[in-house]
Amino acid sequence: MEQGVVDSERPYDNYLKEEGVVYYDIPALITNSDSYLVVVEVNGEIAGSGYAQIRQSRPFHTHDFHCYLGFIYLESRCRGKAIGRQIIDALKDWDISKGMKNIQLKVYAENAGAIRAYKKSGFNEVSVLMELVV
Question: Residue 134's Cα: distance from chain center in Å?
Fold first, then answer.
């Protein structure tokens, strides 16, 4: 499934290596008490995933810790069926149970479908990463 995430992000990121891309330490996401991994099955097949992880915030922020969401992915056959919303809601519930008040994630600026889905879940754009290739 992780390679599904990589493949879906490849059109948005020209710098991804052709092979051997690994984003996540999945065993650590499963065993670390500061992480929560969700995997959704539909008809016995993996349909989607996501994780929440408590991370230290920047020292100048008003909150010491925040929750970061990642590995949010849906198989194409499962998109548009509110499964992504269920994943985000489950992660948000876990975040709240841990006392977190701030939830963050990163999304490619050109991934309009994901941005729409996150906005429907209550997320707002906070900053934009700019890049210059020289």
Answer: 30
pLDDT > 90 in the chain, percent: 53
Give the per-residue pLDDT at 48. 92
The CATH superfamily of 2-120 is Gcn5-related N-acetyltransferase (GNAT) (3.40.630.30)
> Could you please report the per-residue DSSP string of 55-90?
EEPPTTSSSSEEEEEEEEEE-GGGTTTTHHHHHHHH
Q: Where are the domains of the chain?
A: 2-120
Residues 77-107, buried b or exposed e (16+ Cβ, 10 A)? ebeeeebbeebbeebbebbeeeebeebebeb
Which residue in 94, 46, 45 sits closest to 69, CA to CA?
94
Helix, coil or strand: residue 99: coil
Which helix (H) or strand (E) segment holds residue 49: the answer is strand 45-56
Does 92 score more than 80 pLDDT? yes
The partner residues of 104 in beta bridges, in order of sequence, read 68
